[in-house]
Amino acid sequence: MCKLAHRAAKISIAEFLGHLWCHEGEKKQYTPAKCPAQTLECFKFTCDTNETEFVARGCGVSLLTTAAGLPNESCHQALEICQRIGGIGLCETCGDKHMCN
Hints:
It contains two helices and five strands; from the N terminus they run αββββαβ. The protein has one domain (2-94): CD59 (Ribbon), CATH 2.10.60.10. By secondary structure, it is of the alpha+beta class. Strands 4-3-5 form a three-stranded antiparallel sheet, with helices on one face. A two-stranded antiparallel ribbon has the order 1-2. It starts with a helix and ends in a 7-residue tail after the last strand.
């Protein structure tokens, strides 16, 4: 029940705010992007390996398409790829203001 109330609160915030804007791109090269409707968060994903660091930024998942309300859901695919190449992944999400990533 608590999960449903939390998800309902997120939906109403998304509807109130309209479209969220996030940075999209990599570590030092990124641009503003208008996210799809009912996107609740921006993400910044960092994958550290012994050889290099990879950074990706973008719009998180949208409630209209794939969001299930899971923690770090916006980074699931990147986390899996990072682990496959022996890296350590860090997912940071935010939704409290535009371009917070």
